[in-house]
Amino acid sequence: RPDVVVYYPDGRCIVIDSKVSLVAYTDAVNSNDDSSREGALSRHIASVRENIRKLSSKNYNEYLGEHKADFVMMFIPNEGAYLAAMNSEPKLWEEAYDKRVVIVSPTHLISALRLVEQLWRQDDMKRNVINIAEEGGKMYDKLVGFTDCMIAIGKDLDRIKTTYDTAVNTVSTGKGNRS
């Protein structure tokens, strides 16, 4: 089960998971020498990678039902632990993203949620614009068809009027008429 599911009004949602172990990071912060600090930092990176692997393999969409999550936010609840991981392994964020996991820290969480909401809103507006354009195209096609029919009716009325005038002239004013 996810730690947090943020539901947006349009039915979309984001899963946030904060089950990140900070034991290795704490060991790195508390170590007295560079060698043990580097070892603990390596374990911290390995722990983060393992959590990314686990999150990417979870199928939260089964849990969410009709709501669908495009990705999972992996929340590292300690800014120092987040920075240590990102600074030590610059490609870590990209590796996670490729697995549909977005790593966020306390500083980034709210802004990331707002950014996602903005992107979804823009996507919805783009879809609405496309839908309006398609419906407008259909209305234009109907108007063109209606106009073509009206022009044909006008031509038929002109032809009928000419035939009517010819018939009237034949009887009332034409050759052989007594008036």
Report on this model:
With 179 residues, the protein is of the alpha/beta class. The chain contains six helices and four strands. The chain has helices at residues 23-30, 34-57, 60-64, 79-88, 92-98, 106-173, and strands spanning 4-7, 13-17, 72-75, 101-104. A four-stranded mixed β-sheet has the order 1-2-3-4. The longest helix has 68 residues, at 106-173. The mean pLDDT is 86.
Brief write-up:
With 179 residues, the protein is of the alpha/beta class. The chain has helices at residues 23-30, 34-57, 60-64, 79-88, 92-98, 106-173; strands spanning 4-7, 13-17, 72-75, 101-104.
Determine Rg (CA atoms, Å): 36 Å
Overall pLDDT metric: 86
Order of helices and strands: EEHHHEHHEH
**What does the largest sheet look like?**
4 strands, mixed
Please work out how many helical segments DSSP would assign: 6
Compute the number of strand runs. 4
Give the overall shape.
rod-shaped
Uncertain runs with pLDDT below 50, 5 residues or more? none
What secondary-structure arrangement, pairings included, does this model have?
Layout: E1 4-7, E2 13-17, H1 23-30, H2 34-57, H3 60-64, E3 72-75, H4 79-88, H5 92-98, E4 101-104, H6 106-173
Parallel strand pairs: 2-3, 3-4
Antiparallel strand pairs: 1-2
